[in-house]
């Protein structure tokens, strides 16, 4: 007898969700409370566990389907009884398969689990071509999501008989990528879609794109493309090529790159020195969101400056004791976070958002902290910072910053922010105008602390000064409110005792 898996309660006022990712496919064994799939709503991401142990008999709601509360998602059968009840596999796994070789059993190469709330990826690079012999765990291809790059190893040794997802194709989690035949298997038949392109010569005029992991490794090692010899298709540089170049500790001749056709008005000799690199999914998402912010909001920026003397003195006085007690260093971000929370209470429209013809005021503060990573800019969100201490804020900033750099943040951890802080000062920026993070109405830009001569009580003194910038949506925030907000942040930082007394 099968057990039904249904959509759980999604939260207050949420009546439907989208099926984002299935972690299991029909026929897979599942344990009690093992995660079967993930649902996305406009507020949260919900994981659906298996209510019983057994075998996933069928999937009723496919990835991308919209389902209501208590809708049927799938059925789980007792172990050994699911075979007759399984329905067809998902479309991503139904691509044409190459004939099984006479030398061994056919093995499917599937898209691995891509991470929490990530349901699809782009095939970036194939390291092997049809007909190549591969060993178990040897890297076959690399996938790109909007967060991380994922390398796909061979599940078994054999021969790559068919590639079902070409470079540039978008694949779903659990979809099929390729087919492996036993040792000595012949190449895929002529009508297999990947056979001809895989063998195309490097001189066909195509631009060469190195593997994303290789580009990252070269950047970290300080190598340029001319110092590494590519072993991939069309001279692509792979991650192991960079490792080999570092081990050899010498320059290697560049792999032959295809010549790009000159594009007017670029001269031919200049075109030969250009390099074309496809934008990553993360960079495409960043570009779209930032341009949408400019097109939608009536953005305006107001500036001020803050004397950091008192904050620096307080931090210097207590940083050792703070780290000894709380196990985390006392930085400037917790002071700025607290100062912004203090100012948002007085100017709540900076913490609000526009929804159609309504203004939605937030009686809480979910603070986004912009962080630069090797993959691009991300904004992890610290929830309910208005209720947290300095130590709790510093610990969460430290933990989320590390996970952001490692590409391990979930989508849920980057959603729901009500206000954002961006610290360009860590890169040496003296002044900038930050762009809003939609649908938020305000973002504070921090900058470099620089000693400057200031007039203090009629005398010139050298003080550590920082320029502050508040970009805001003028549709909802008036100039008076924006200036008041920035002045309150300035006052709280120049006299931190105000934060304790709520002044």
UniProtKB/TrEMBL annotation:
CDD domains for this protein? lipoyl_domain
> Which ranges carry the Peripheral subunit-binding (PSBD) domain?
209-246
Keyword check for Transferase, yes or no.
Answer: yes
Q: Give, as in the UniProt entry, the pathway in which the protein acts.
A: Amino-acid degradation; L-lysine degradation via saccharopine pathway; glutaryl-CoA from L-lysine: step 6/6
Is Transferase tagged as a keyword? yes
Q: Which Pfam families match?
A: 2-oxoacid_dh, Biotin_lipoyl, E3_binding
EC assignment: the record states 2.3.1.61
In UniProt terms, what function does this protein have? E2 component of the 2-oxoglutarate dehydrogenase (OGDH) complex which catalyzes the second step in the conversion of 2-oxoglutarate to succinyl-CoA and CO(2).
Family to which the UniProt record says this protein belongs = Belongs to the 2-oxoacid dehydrogenase family.
Task: Return the protein name.
Answer: Dihydrolipoyllysine-residue succinyltransferase component of 2-oxoglutarate dehydrogenase complex
What species is given as this protein's source?
A: Salipiger mangrovisoli
Q: Which gene encodes it?
A: odhB
